Amino acid sequence: MSHNCVMKTLQYKFVEFMPEALEEGILYVSIPYSTAIHKCVCGCGNEVVTPLSPTDWELTFDGKSVSLYPSIGNWNFKCRSHYWIVKNKIRYSRLWDKEEIEKGRKKDIDRKKHYFSKNKKH
């Protein structure tokens, strides 16, 4: 994948329900369903779903722009794109190798286990 990709920025739309057909260059955010969706910024056409939760992605809206944390690594897509969305701007990141992807996945699982064990109701 080239880092001179199609999109340099994303606009945002707050919606209740996601549209059937996503437009390129728009991050759709549903607060009621705690989800953000957009088309991959590399131009491959894949839909990228980012659940918003303490153990998934965090959305920041400053009144003029949106940011998602952490980065988006589309490791299951053919493009394997990796980028950040920071104040509507796309910041491309380097591709990870298989070992880094596995470590990242394990870290995600461990973080979720820790979060849910800490927040269990007794």
Give a brief rundown of this model.
The chain has 122 residues and is an alpha+beta fold. It contains 1 helix and 8 strands; from the N terminus they run ββββββββα.
SSE class: alpha+beta
Major β-sheet strand ordering: 1-2-3-4
Largest sheet: 4 strands, mixed
> β content, as a range?
25-35%
* Number of helical elements: 1
Q: What is the oligomeric state here?
A: single chain
- Silhouette: globular
Total number of strands: 8
Q: What is the succession of H and E elements?
A: EEEEEEEEH
Tell me the Rg in angstroms: 15 Å
Mean pLDDT: 88
Low-confidence stretches: none
| Through-space gap between termini | 48 Å
Percent of residues in helices = 10-25%
Characterize the structure shown:
The protein has 122 residues and is of the alpha+beta class. It has a domain at 11-95. Helix content is 17%, strand content 33%. The chain has a 4-stranded mixed β-sheet with strand order 1-2-3-4, with no helix packed on it.
